Amino acid sequence: MGTKRRVIDEVKFDVAVRPQSLASTNITGRYFPMDKSKKACFVCTFGQMVAAGTVLLEVFQAKTFLAGSAVLIASASAQGVALRGGQVMTVALATFLATGTITITPYVNNVAGTALVFTAHATVTTKSLRQFSIAGTDTQDGDELVACINDATYGVPGVFAVNAAGTVSLYCFDEVTTFAVASAPDDGTCTKATFQGELIVEVAAAAITWASGFGWVAAKVTTAGATVICGVTLARFGRFNPVQQSAILPASV
Fold first, then answer.
1. Which neighbouring-strand residues pair with 235?
2. What residue segments make up the domains of the chain, in order of their start?
3. Which of 151, 175, 149 is closest to 161 using CA atoms?
4. Are 239 and 24 in contact (CB under 8 A)?
5. The whole model's pTM is what?
6. Residue 93 burial (CB < 10 Å; 0-12/13-18/19+)?
7. Nearest to 17 by CA among 168, 204, 229, 167
8. C-alpha angle 231/62/197, rounded to 5°?
9. Bridge partners, residue 118, by sequence
10. Where is 125: in which H helix or E strand?
11. Which residues contact 139 (CB under 8 A, 6 or more apart)?
12. Pair type for strands 131-133 and 116-121
């Protein structure tokens, strides 16, 4: 049998931007050389973000490690908008009113599916109508909403809901789905937040302006709104056998 290759033998991983709190500001991480790589992939993970927030991930190229003549690679950017594209979101009910609606739109491979509207009813839960009762406490109302969202026929594909004291957490469980959440009325009776999300930007070495002396890349993260915890990992692959700057465990198989 031949020697088994591990992912870490093929792909170089680096911390492009260390995890930190960003509140309506931006930070550019370390610049990395691309002369031995065919492609680079920046992965930004972020934590809880309120409804008015955004996270923007951009890739810049420079001529030196010290960001000489840095400019944006226009084709390499992605933006995370709160309540759109999340992997985990929360909906907190606070005396939500009858006829109020909560809309969940699943996205598969970033393509929008059917928007599913769940409507609050004063007394009755009817799953086939995506109608949930708000006759009880916020906790009880959350249980009714969860029952509708998780229904095998009328619920949200790829999404699983859990209630805790009226705060309904929505999770993606099929690895390809994200989702968007909206409510009407959009007020304090239903507070929404993105709890976990991810942005991915890939850039090819061919996108770098080598002829002008560029050859280094870095990630820039910009947030708008309240504090968001963000961090960026860089994966490079191509013309080299990488050496990792990390503690490494051997492959299990």
1. 13, 41
2. 11-79+198-238, 95-187
3. 149
4. no
5. 0.79
6. buried
7. 229
8. 20
9. 102
10. none
11. 163, 165, 166
12. parallel
Q: Express each pLDDT in 135-164 by its tens digit.
A: 999 999 999 999 999 999 999 988 899 999
Which amino acid type is present at position 183? S
Cβ neighbour number for residue 184 with a 10 Å cutoff: 13
The amino acid occupying position 225 is: G
Model pLDDT for residues 48-87, shown as the tens digit of each residue: 777 667 888 999 999 999 998 999 998 887 776 655 667 8
- Provide the pairing of β-strand 216-224 with 26-28: antiparallel
Containing 90, the helix (H) or strand (E) segment is: strand 88-93
Contact (Cβ atoms closer than 8 angstroms) between residue 193 and residue 89: yes
Distance of alpha carbon 101 from its chain centroid, rounded? 24
Please report, for residues 32, 181, 252, the alpha-carbon distance to residue 51 in angstroms, rounded to integers and kept in the order given: 34, 10, 42
Mean pLDDT across 165-192: 86
Instruction: Give me 58's structure tokens.
Output: 């951009």
The pair of three-digit structure tokens given for residue 39, joined into one six-digit string = 């492609």
CA angle 38, 12, 33 (to 5 degrees): 55
Q: Whose CA is closest to 209, among 53, 42, 76, 47?
A: 76
Helix (H), strand (E) at residue 204: strand 190-204
Q: What is the pLDDT of residues 88-108, one digit of tens each?
A: 889 999 999 999 999 998 888
The closest of 2, 15, 61 to 245, measured between CA atoms, is 15
- Over the Cα atoms of the chain, what is R_g? 22
Q: Do 120 and 190 touch, CB atoms closer than 8 A? A: no
Identify residue 99 by its one-letter amino acid code. T
Please check whether the domain covering 11-79+198-238 is classified as CATH 2.60.120.380: yes
Cis-peptide, bond into residue 185, ω within 30° of zero: yes
